[in-house]
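Record type: ASSEMBLY
Status: queued
Input:
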Amino acid sequence: MYKTTMLTKDLVAASSKPLLLSILAGGESYGYEIIQKVRELSGGQIEWSDGMLYPVLHRLERDGLIESEWKEADTGRERKYYFISSDGRKALKTERRQWLAVHNSLCKLWKIKPVTI
Amino acid sequence: MAGRSQLPVQIMENQTRYDLNAAVENWRNELAAQPNLASDDRRELETHLRDAIERRMKSGMDAQRAFEAAVQRIGKSRALNSEFKKNINLNWKKIMAMAGLCGFTLFIAVFKPGKASDITSAQQLSLLASTAVAIFLSFTGKWGGRFFPAIIDEKKRAAAGILIVSLMCAGSTALLCNTNGLTLSQLFVAVTWGLNIFVGFSAALIEGLDRAAQKKLEEAHHV
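Status: finished
Output:
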């Protein structure tokens, strides 16, 4: 689904949901900005191919986890902004627990300090 | 757009200003020929493309290279189309509709419920044949596209489809008005033929028109 330099395809696909929900939990955003943000956050390790992001966004919207609205940006250009819904926030909590459970198990195995859930 | 690509090289080189808007418009038209992209999806992709071009131009790239790099990055229209298809699953709907229609016809033909009990074996065969014709017709759009006119404008293409489908409606209604002397099972066979051919042909027509436009645009793009 995605082109990546470092992460495997499966891992990038699985992590797209928590990443998108977390980004949108921090405020509304649009596709282009989201891709830039993910690239920045991961130090270039997660590279989402531009055109593939939208089907994932649309799927989350269809599932009621995010909503969208066309709005005019400062530049005068209209953009489709996405924001998180209350169901999305609930889903994010679940995602967070699950990802940290995986993370902490690996931390213990690798003898790295785990984080509190 | 084909005209532009046939310009002699000298003229192309003298052209100091790259027509970015025309390039974006070509790209948009190519997207419009993809059946799985809704107009809202295309609008969203276009704002994305423009953002990507702008960013590249700000960092010093010229318009043409910025456009080409952004298109490369966003993915070719066909690849985009198949990604979006995962959401829409158009084929699945088509198959379900065809299966429903054919299943109903076969049920009547084989079990002859209620008033359909006087269906003769010739009529049974006729119903089976109409089902086969419907299935066959619905698949002809795949290769029939090459004989269809390439109507690039999406709205005109939809209008052409609606016009032909309405004509078929009018035709089948006219035929069915002459059914006074028919028995119920004869009427059923007549309606089934009308309906199956109508559905099969409509499916083929819509797919064929889309494919013709898509092919034309791809050819123009690769000249």
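Annotation: Confidence is low (pLDDT under 50) at residues 1-15 of chain B.
Annotation: Chain B touches chain A at residues 40-41, 43-45, 47-48, 50-52, 73-75, 79-80, 83-84, 86-87 (CB under 8 Å).
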